[in-house]
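Lecture notes, unit on protein representations.

Consider one protein chain, 144 amino acids long.
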Amino acid sequence: MSILQIDSLYRYINDQGFKDNFIYPLALAFIIGIFTLIWKFVNNVLKKLFRRKSITTIQPNSKPTSIIECVTVNTFSELCQLLLKPLEDNKYVFKTFGPNSSFSELTSLRVDMTLWHNARLENIIPNNELIRCLIEKNSHLIPV
């Protein structure tokens, strides 16, 4: 190695301009990027948390009316006939508005889930309450 090469290597190692012009801005950009990712993650989690709370609250005066009432029946087949309607309604609502409703199409999955959340509150939850009530009242008819 010649003296010229050693001298230039010594200047390169001790040169503060290299650190000031490259390392510090790169580190600053990295730190800003990390804080941005953390901020977006926290913001997204908070949005989902507040959106979920607002969706799952049911208005006390908005109890939907059901065509089928919770009654006691005489046979297991009558119970099955009464349970069929709300189960088919739930299936239709899920296939029409559910998260995978556009699965059969070539488009991607749904992003806007507003219709699904409203359909759950208006249809699926009352149907499930009716199904639960029918099963509880007629549990003696269900074979073990």
